Amino acid sequence: MNTEESQETIEGTRVVTEETHENTEETQVHTEETPEPRKEPPVEREEEIRAAIQACQSVLDELGPRFTERVYRRAVEITLHEQGIAAQAGVGIAVWFHGQIIGTFEADLVLPSHVILELKVGDRIDDWHEAQLLNYLRCTCAEIGYVVAFGTALRYKRFILDNSRKRGVRGDGFVWRG
Fold first, then answer.
1. What is the CB neighbour count within 10 angstroms for residue 128?
2. What's the pTM value of the predicted model, to 2 decimals?
3. DSSP class of residue 161?
4. Helix, strand or coil for residue 165?
5. Nearest one of 133, 136, 106, 151 to 27, comparing CA atoms
6. Cα separation of 63 and 128, whole Å?
7. What CA–CA distance (Å, rounded) separates 123 from 153?
8. CA 34, CA 130: separation in Å to the nearest integer?
């Protein structure tokens, strides 16, 4: 395993990327003004995340590359449900401004521990994929999210955005299906 670190700025947010092996990147998102240490998520959440990433790999191994995001999303959702993890697909995310909802997004998958999985098709994770997930994290109580790319190999990148750094989140920020 090789470890490389780089620092870059995305819209005033400090991003630290650590590549742990060829298919995985972990990213922590913190604002510039506070160099607080990363708080570790509860063990149950990490087990759920591990199961979700393994489910993604299992789906890619079984289906192979070049399906649509929708196909991968449904396959991962089924795989997680088979493992007893009640992930929800297509969860709405409300964007609030001056006390009103001005728009909504749709997260591909949300784990019970409020971890967002944003699924993409392709061999790389682009800046706009990262920006999309960061917007989801900014609008919800979710502090951890992953961009997962289904290509010739599975690639994923982890983002952490502490709730203490967010403004304007109402409730948990999700629009849950009944």
1. 9
2. 0.76
3. B
4. helix
5. 133
6. 26
7. 7
8. 22
Task: Tell me if 150 sits within 8 A of 121, measured CB to CB.
Answer: yes
- For 32-43, what is each residue's pLDDT tens digit? 333 444 555 577
Residue range 143-154, pLDDT digits in tens: 999 999 999 999
Contact between 96 and 121 (Cβ < 8 Å): no
Q: Residue 40 has which token pair? A: 């570790």
Residue predicted with more confidence, 42 or 132: 132
Distances in Å between the Cα of 44 and the Cα atoms of 12, 22, 78 are: 31, 26, 20
Any idea where the domains of the chain sit in the sequence? Answer: 4-32+40-175
Q: Quick: pLDDT tens for 79-91.
A: 999 999 999 999 9
How high is the pLDDT of residue 8? Answer: 39
The secondary structure of 87-138 as a DSSP string is -EEEEEEEEEETTEEEEEEEEEEE-TTS-EEEEEESSS--HHHHHHHHHHHH
